[in-house]
UniProtKB/TrEMBL annotation:
InterPro entries referenced in this protein's UniProt entry, alphabetically: 7TM_GPCR_serpentine_rcpt_Sre (IPR004151), Serpentine_rcpt_epsilon (IPR052854)
Gene Ontology CC entries for this record: membrane
BP GO annotations: sensory perception of chemical stimulus
Protein name: G protein-coupled receptor
Keyword set, alphabetical order: Membrane, Transmembrane, Transmembrane helix
Organism lineage string: Eukaryota, Metazoa, Ecdysozoa, Nematoda, Chromadorea
Length: 305
């Protein structure tokens, strides 16, 4: 295929436009989320580090997708060298976000199972640095594998990696739900210290903060694996050579995944909820004072007339 002009049809332009709009909307959301990660001190430091890594990966992948969509719509074909190079960096950003999110789910599972001990002993910055190093190491390993693997085998590797991530997330989520439910049933035991009850409440709140995004991520990866399985195994078409609508389906799926994560993480955060409630409370106080003033001056006017 020639690389001196865009190879898109009307559907391609429409789908790239939809994806670009979703990616542009995501950018201010993720910066709000970064602020929340810094400002919301009640979240465990390791959990905030994992969320921050996922956010950085999402932001990198989002910016690269905007660049690829712009290049594809303007002048280049799917096999242009610049598009292929950016696609490799896109996969790297997506993998960094994927491992960051996996670490966040597993970290909450460990905090739930070892509640109390984990929160006190492992709150130092050493664990956060170790998590960052592990994420970088795993991402670089996958980047090297994608770089040197055969084109026909890339789809199989992607299916395997995403399947492993899905299974680990399911196991971690199952542990979070099971242990939180068991501890919540016994929360009124008289032998429990107040600090343990408070920590249980914090773990349940973190799980609620996490679980809807984890379920959405799980569904998106299941759909991605199914599409990859159909394209790479049943059709026998490598991902880079697929000229059907499947590549657009992958891109829009992950754009939706990023946008959902940004919206959910921002709007569910305690900082955002406190900001909204504070504005409502301020409005109520001002309205109450205005009403009181009207009643007072109305009664005063009646006395004088």
């Amino acid at each position: 295929m020639s690389t001196d002009g865009s190879d898109l049809d009307e559907w391609g332009y429409a789908l790239f436009s939809i994806e670009t709009i979703m990616n542009v909307v995501f950018i201010p959301l993720i910066f709000c989320f970064f602020y929340i990660c810094v400002a919301q001190k009640n979240l465990h430091p390791n959990f905030r580090v994992c969320l921050f890594m996922a956010g950085i990966g999402y932001l990198g992948a989002d910016i690269i997708r905007i660049a690829i969509a712009s290049i594809r719509m303007c002048c280049e074909g799917i096999n242009a060298p610049l598009v292929l190079d950016l696609s490799r960096y896109l996969m790297t950003g997506s993998d960094f976000a994927m491992f960051g999110w996996l670490f966040a789910v597993v970290e909450r599972a460990i905090a739930t199972v070892f509640s109390g001990i984990y929160e006190i002993r492992y709150a130092a910055c050493t664990i956060g640095v170790l998590l960052c190093c592990m994420n970088v190491l795993l991402t670089v390993s996958l980047m090297c594998m994608y770089r040197y693997c055969q084109t026909c085998d890339l789809g199989i590797y992607l299916i395997a990696v995403n399947t492993v991530v899905v299974l680990l997330c399911v196991i971690a989520l199952g542990g979070i739900i099971k242990f939180n439910d068991s501890k919540y049933r016994n929360r009124h035991e008289s032998m429990k210290r107040l600090a343990e009850k408070y920590q249980l409440a914090e773990n349940i709140r973190s799980a609620k903060y996490l679980i809807c995004i984890a379920i959405n991520d799980f569904i998106c990866r299941i759909i991605f694996v199914a599409l990859m399985w159909y394209s790479a195994i049943l059709k026998g078409t490598p991902m880079q050579s697929d000229k059907s609508l499947f590549p657009h389906a992958y891109d829009i799926l992950f754009a939706y995944q990023r946008l959902f994560a940004g919206l959910a993480l921002t709007f569910q955060s305690e900082t955002f909820c406190q900001l909204i409630q504070q504005r409502k409370r301020t409005t109520q106080i001002v309205d109450g004072r205005n009403d009181a003033a009207d009643i007072y001056f109305g009664k005063l006017k009646q006395m004088l007339t």
